[in-house]
Amino acid sequence: MDFDLFVIGGGSAGVRCARIAAGHGARVGVAESRFWGGTCVNIGCVPKKFLVMAAEYGANAEDARGFGWDAAPGAHDWQALIAAKDKEIGRLNGIYRRLLENAGAKIFDARARLIDAHTLDVGGARVTAEKIVIATGGHPTGLEIPGAEHAIISDDAFYLPEMPKRVAIIGSGYIAVEFAGVFAGLGAETHLIYRQPLPLRGFDIDLREGLAEALAANGVVLHPDTVPTAIAQTETGKRLSLSDTTCVEVDLVFFATGRAANTKGLGLDEAGVKLGEKGEVLVGPDFATSVPNIYALGDVTDRLNLTPVATAEGHALADTLFGNKARGVSLATVPTAVFSIPPIATVGLTEEDAARERRVRVFVTRFTPMRHQLTGRVRKTLMKLVVDEATDKVLGAHMLGEDAPEIMQGLAVAMIAGATKADFDRTIGIHPTAAEEFVTLRTQTRVAGPGIGPV
Ligand code: NDP
After folding, report:
1. Do residue 264 and residue 389 come from a single domain?
2. Residues 418-428: pLDDT tens digits?
3. Does 453 have pLDDT greater than 80?
4. Is 372 within 8 Å of 379 (Cβ atoms)?
5. Is 194 touching ligand 1 by the criterion CB < 6 Å?
6. 36 and 57 fall within a common domain
7. Are 17 and 97 within one domain?
8. CATH number for the domain including 424?
9. Is the pLDDT score of 125 beyond 60?
10. How far apart are CA 66 and CA 69, in angstroms?
11. 253 - beta bridge partners?
12. What is the structure's pLDDT at 455?
């Protein structure tokens, strides 16, 4: 065999797996045909966060007036932002490549395809490997409606030649609400069109209600319970017809309607790798596919599509196969953040999920953050704990508000360690912060549980 391990895909999961396996002494090859670092670094988490930061500066400039600064937002230069973002992404690409080279992995800037369980075609060359990892990620999917070709997906949003003045975003998942904040913050008339009564299905109900209010306060026009039916190009823009029989005219229609696994053209059929209903690669807890020497990691398995999950999986598999340290990755209690403006962060169970099986004590607080007492901006922070009534364990922590992702990371450690509400209560706060509210939540808001009415 040419390699002990061949990794298809140089994204978060693949790079980590290849690098750690090479560090354990394995002969590793890794192929990437698009960009090193994958979705997260190039057209996902990293550039998205730069765009969100850019969008926040406008409001920050306005807010500074409340503190005595003679400041005003002024004009925004979209091209300058994209150029600065591209420069940084280019730097990160280089780092990802060098990480692999320095670890001793052989790099292929090429597409790889399976020929059989141990043989690959890598950019036209035949390569054999003892073990193979599929870490090819996913791609955004749009809706099949008339005129769909006039819409963009998130991949395109990072390279728009100019900032649109009017935008319609379809969907209300992570990508939709994050980009709603970006476009509205940069001054576009922004419409959010979604089929649920509230955005972010699957998140805690209080966060969802709070987010809908925050989006509206930021000027986003909300279209709940609505789906798009057609897009037509007009002389002045794009006319988006909606299921409520109204239409909106915009410059940009953006499908943020989910992602699907990249499994086409990889020879998975030829090698006997089984796929699930949505085209995702099926794996067991050891990341093995239906072919025992072929593994799959990260978004291509479509379980919990988050970068830190993918890197943790890559690391665990490399340790298991080549580091003499067999381990998996627990997908329970994974913290996550949505970089809406303001952001959301959450760890553990929603009130609804927790109360389905047990009685829970619920603590909710909503307040104006200290900063906005002087800025006058109408922006609330919401914090919530869901506590098991029987054991006192904190089952869920949820926050909508400035710095929520930074605060939630620490709470996730406490929850993984099994913290109880009493542990939170005996923790001394850091004053004056928003975070201290999590350890001073004394007044129970309600009790929820089976048969205690709608949550
Ligand atoms: P999501 O699955 O989060 O959201 C998809 C949205 O599209 C939902 O609002 C969904 O509505 C809607 N939708 C799907 N199909 C249709 C349809 N046929 N008609 C109308 N609406 C539809 O996908 P995203 O694209 O936002 O993101 C993909 C994943 O990437 C996320 O789930 C997350 O795992 C990851 N991600 C993580 C980020 C982070 O960590 N901050 C940032 C961005 C992405 P409904 O709810 O009704 O199904």
Report:
1. no
2. 999 999 999 99
3. no
4. yes
5. yes
6. yes
7. yes
8. 3.30.390.30
9. yes
10. 7
11. 168
12. 57
Distance 229 CA to ligand 1 centre (A): 18
Specify whether 155 is located in the same domain as 228. yes
Same domain flag for 296 and 350: no
Question: Is the domain of 308 the same as that of 394?
Answer: no
Examine the domain organization and report whether 134 and 9 are in the same domain: yes
Average pLDDT value over all residues in the chain: 97
Instruction: Using pLDDT thresholds of 50, 70 and 90, give the confidence band for residue 454.
Output: low
- Whether residue 65 has pLDDT greater than 60: yes
CATH number, domain containing residue 116: 3.50.50.60
Judge whether 315 counts as a catalytic residue: no
Other Cβ atoms within 10 Å of 33 Cβ, number: 15
Instruction: Using the atom order of ligand 1, give the atom closest to the CA of residue 141.
Output: 25
Give the ligand 1 atom nearest the CA of 338.
41
pLDDT at 452: 87
Does the Cβ of 339 fall within 6 Å of ligand 1? yes
Boundaries of domain holding 203: 148-257
Confidence of residue 146 (pLDDT cuts 50, 70, 90): very high
